[in-house]
Amino acid sequence: MPFRNIAVGRYEEVTHPGTLKCALAEFISTLIFVFAGEGSVVAYAKLTSGAALTPSGLVGVAICHGLALFVAVAISANISGGHVNPAVTFGLFVGGNITLFKGIVYWIAQLVGAAVACLLLKAVTDGMTTSPHALSSGEPVWGALVLEIVITFGLVYTVYATAVDPRSKGNVGILAPLAIGLIVAANILFAGAFDGGSMNPARSFGPALVALDFTDHWVYWVGPLLGGLIAGAVYEVLILPSDEPHHEPLASEY
């Protein structure tokens, strides 16, 4: 039966020490990821005096995001599961790998981590503004929405295949963070020319909040969340063996 494992959980989870440790891990990992990822964009703007992103610049930004996410997932995997992304958390909730209450705590930690990262960037760069994700000239909103759905599907599907599927057990330590970082870098290399290639509402929220620019911001929530939902549903219903128990990937005890 589809979505048979979705669970709301108990309110006590919100204040449980295990959940709070997971939240701290998500906060720190998201801060590290967004600080490095958005930092690469800010650094490019400084080095080029605000010039438009070039192909070589896009490669640099994509590599920086991929490496930063690789590290961010690796350092939190054994504590919180290494989500670092509200869309990943939502996709795992759909598959029954995290409860609603715990997922909400993760979301808060991720969003706060992204916001703090961008505030720190503004402080250490002498007030340079962050660059919210934005549609390129001529890119239709519906095109960006579909693009975010597709690339986030690829990301969350990768998370399921390398970290959630019981058949991947024993390979999670390096393979999962590396694969997750690589798929994000690859997606940015393509989607970056059209809408920035977010795949992560927290990654989009931090720069938008600090810059106070929420133009088309809904695209970077709706697209990734739908992509995460579809990936979770596909893997839960069609890919994951029905006789295998579900588990929260590398999560804490509660």
TrEMBL record:
Record's keyword annotation contains Mitochondrion: no
Statement: the UniProt record of this protein carries the keyword Transmembrane: yes
Record localization: Endomembrane system
Entry GO CC: cytoplasm; endomembrane system; membrane
Transmembrane stretches, start-end: 27-45, 57-77, 83-100, 107-125, 141-160, 172-194, 218-240
One of the GO BP terms on file: one-carbon compound transport
InterPro entries noted in UniProt: Aquaporin-like (IPR023271), Aquaporin_transptr (IPR034294), MIP (IPR000425), MIP_CS (IPR022357)
Pfam family for this entry, one: MIP
Principal location listed in the UniProt entry: membrane
Topology within the bilayer: Multi-pass membrane protein
GO MF assignments: water channel activity
Key words, A-Z: Membrane, Repeat, Transmembrane, Transmembrane helix, Transport
Similarity-based family: Belongs to the MIP/aquaporin (TC 1.A.8) family. TIP (TC 1.A.8.10) subfamily.
Name of the molecule in the record: Uncharacterized protein
